[in-house]
Amino acid sequence: MNHKLKNKVAVITGGNSGIGLATATEYARQGAQVVILARSQEKLDAAITHIGHNACGYLGDVTDLASIKSLYENVAKDFGKIDIIFSSAGVFAPTMLEDTDETLFDQISNINFKGAYFTVKYAVPYLNKGASVVLVSSCLNEMGAEGGALYNATKAAVRSLARSLTPELVKIDARINVLSPGPVETPIHTNRGLSEAEASDVWQMFADRLPAGRVGNVEEMAKTALFLASDDSSFMYGSDLQADGGMNQVRW
Prior knowledge:
This protein is of the alpha/beta class. The chain has a single domain (9-181, 216-239), classed as NAD(P)-binding Rossmann-like Domain (Rossmann fold), CATH 3.40.50.720. Helix content is 44%, strand content 17%. The protein is built from 8 helices and 7 strands. A 7-stranded parallel sheet has the order 3-2-1-4-5-6-7, with helices on both faces. Helix 1 packs across helix 8 (218-229). It is globular, with a radius of gyration of 17 Å.
């Protein structure tokens, strides 16, 4: 195997499930020391067991800025400088304008946007030269959808971060780019309260509309995340890589 991330240190938020967990597993398989952030010991232990090797983690939450700071302090103490940041902590909660109160607005914004912003901010003192920062957005960052105003706006904000933070990170010889998945089968819909059958219907609805003819899987996203983290993407700065099955590229 070509270990593209050999001797690299990778920090992943949202690394206990979905795309984050698949990416953590792929990074470890490619030789990186993976460090994940999880909100409970149970989730942390399960993720580390799943990854299987080259993995450890700390308890924390991206909405708790003190825990982000503590994460980086612990990583620096245990492993030294950081080579990769993969910011994938996020929540999907469609909501109509009339049903959105301040509490829900703050919850989604704090996880999806504020969390990503400070995940990058507090990482800067600990980044190695040549570091790669990858933010997870969504192909919805360029699309409008009824009930998606709040979620889509937070993902558009994440995409914008890579553009505006690029000049700042270049000063420390680091890159920042965005991975924007389309519909990818994860627990995202059951996590918001849908039954397994209801979630299956949602995935099928997307599959029927996508040029790919199916929804994506987390392993495909992990391979794309590997490209962005490795030197294979060394000429990409502030870019948005849309792995979306054609959702935002072709209107059927």
